[in-house]
Write a structure and sequence with these properties.
Radius of gyration: 17 Å
Strand content: under 5%
Oligomer: single chain
Order of helices and strands: HHHHHHHHHHH
Number of domains: 2
Shape: globular
Structural class: mainly alpha
Low-confidence stretches: 152-170
Number of helices: 11
Mean pLDDT: 74
Largest sheet: none
Helix content: 55-70%
Length: 210
């Protein structure tokens, strides 16, 4: 029964769909379904409270230690909080599994390393390559953000901050980064429009009260 239960978990994990499933499908093995559900719930909480989302990602990793996206987002919650040493410890655990990772997962791991150290000129090419390989809209956003960070003046990316990934819709960074780019370009009407659109998305996700 234990073996059958484990097989069921992998079979369910192999048929998950949607944007959030895109990069797990490119991993070394189908994820355990219970771990995938924890990952999805963690991504939903991430838009409201990144610190609170960590418990979901930790449970996902405990259930399936090969679930690379869970490491990625967990590390990002620490990087975003400037807790770089803690993020590095999360990445180091995944690094210990490098030999067993798929080529796509190894690429994701390399991205985690440069993202945690905020090496802007390396973030951009890795984000571009990862997006080209997996078409994960999160990396489309990171490509736009990387271009913006590398530029001496604002660079307007058609994808930067675009809420195309259901799990991240309403994340304040999407509106913030587009508005900041528009501000530096001197297009203040577009900046205001980006902020108003972002505020609507944030309210829809219940991040702030109306």
């Amino acid at each position: 029964m234990i073996a059958i239960g484990g097989l069921r978990e992998r079979l369910l994990g192999s048929i998950v769909s949607g944007d959030a499933a895109r990069n797990v499908a490119l991993g070394s093995a189908p994820p355990k379904y219970s771990a995938y559900l924890e990952l999805i719930q963690g991504l939903r909480v991430f838009t409201k409270n990144q610190a609170a989302s960590r418990a979901y990602f930790r449970r996902a990793i405990a259930l399936d230690s090969a679930l690379v996206p869970a490491y990625g987002v967990l590390a990002a919650t620490y990087t975003n909080a400037r807790m770089f040493d803690t993020a590095e410890r999360v990445i180091a655990v995944l690094d210990g599994q490098r030999a067993h990772l798929s080529s796509y997962d190894r690429l994701s791991l390399e991205f985690l390393h440069v993202h945690n150290h905020y090496i802007a000129d390396e973030i951009l090419p890795l984000a571009q390559e990862t997006y080209a390989r997996g078409q994960d809209p999160l990396y489309a956003y990171l490509t736009g953000f990387g271009r913006f960070a590398c530029s001496s003046r604002a660079w307007r990316s058609p994808r930067c901050g675009s809420p195309t990934r259901d799990d991240f819709s309403g994340w304040v960074g999407q509106a913030r980064d587009v508005a900041l780019a528009q501000h530096q370009l001197g297009d203040y009407k577009a900046e205001l429009a980006a902020l108003e659109r972002g505020a609507r998305l944030v309210r829809l996700c219940g991040i702030v009260s109306k």
